[in-house]
Amino acid sequence: MTERFFAEYLRHYQPFKPYWNYEDGCVLLGCRRLYEATGSKRYAQFVLDYLSARVTADGQITTFPAERHSLDSFNCGKALFLADALTHEPRWKKAIRWQAAQIAAHPRTKDSGLCWHKSIYPEQVWIDGVYMTAPFFAEYAAMCGETAVYAEIARFFRYLRQRLFVPQTGLYLHAVDESRRQPWADPETGCSRTHWLRGEGWLLMALADVLALLPPSQEALCEQLTAQLREAADGILQYRTENGLLCQVIDRPALRGNYEETSGSLMTAYALMCGALPAEYAEAGLAMLEAVRRHALTGSGGRLHLTGICGAAGLGSGRDGSAEYYLSEPVVADDPKGVGALMLAEAAAVRVPAGIGKEAL
Questions:
Q1: Where are the beta strands (DSSP E) in the chain?
Q2: Cα(79)–Cα(96) distance, integer angstroms
């Protein structure tokens, strides 16, 4: 059923924004993983068609919004590695190096020296950013041999664990404002105050993806991230609903207006199935994927739709970081953040070892 949904979705897909954006990147990476898992060429062709229209012969990404200094801008770049592997055209490696070079001009916080999430969010580190950048740079390091990148990746994950992890809940918060000036920031810690599901999902996927890219020489980093992934997985699994899914505000399922959110549930399922954790975690991921298929993939007007997706969420500009705020954002269908996560989860399910119950794509 999901294969039919993906075919129809890609046939009608329109870029989410006119510039290089992370939402399109979710679908591109989902197609990359489905191609790698199934060998189906239509997924690879979708990626090549998208990139070929946006990357010049000399490796320039014509729609990369460099002036925004946004970590979100790195997500699409993960698809460039597939294009390079498939065609070996020089422009893809040039584009990868060009995108990687953008980090040199990125503004950084005064205290920790980590990249701002965006230039419009000064002195702020958001959990989303580690997914947008860390897997890209881990693959870049493997391609270019720039091993110094690994120390920066380790520091980013360590910072998130130190600043945003809440031992009492076993969950991570969304962001920290090191200047402590934002209305949503705790005046003492600088942290936001709500456990938002997709924020946790970005972190889980980042951990799983980086672990899959580390060379044997990075044993210490592998141990660090494996422990962090297992801790985060144990933390979030305790909040599963009766349906086997997770709520938009993770730790407050009974809160009025709370709901089972699809994209974050799928991100969690994907991370659990990626092979870095023992088999029982993959079993839990498969069960969560099946719960999404059962409860969120529905038919309407002769087509399938993926429902229950938080359309967008952030902090600042009137978004106060409260639980009520996260529940006020529109709930939509077929958003690329959810569909991309479904693609990733289905691709991961294909690779789950024999002996763990699963259904075919």
A1: 124-126, 165-166, 171-172, 175-177, 297-300, 303-306, 309-310, 331-332
A2: 10
Q: Is residue 357 part of a domain?
A: no
Q: Do 178 and 123 meet the contact criterion of CB atoms below 8 Å apart?
A: yes
**How many CA atoms, within 13 angstroms, populate the side-chain half-sphere of residue 221?**
24
Q: What is the CATH number of the domain that holds 70?
A: 1.50.10.10
Give yes or no for a contact between 125 and 132, defined as CB atoms under 8 angstroms apart. Answer: no
In the chain, how many domains are there?
1
With contact defined as beta carbons under 8 Å apart, do 286 and 349 qualify?
yes
Q: What is the pLDDT of residue 357?
A: 59
Q: Is residue 305 one of the residues assigned to a domain? A: yes
Residue 24: domain span:
2-351
- Under-70 pLDDT residues of the chain: 354-355, 357-361
DSSP, res 357: -
Q: What angle do CA 29, 207, 237 make, to 5 degrees?
A: 105
Q: Which residue do the tokens 């997914």 mark?
A: 131
- Predicted pLDDT of residue 360: 38
Residue 347: what pLDDT? 98
81-94 burial, b for 16+ CB within 10 Å, e for fewer?
A: bbbbeeeebebbbb
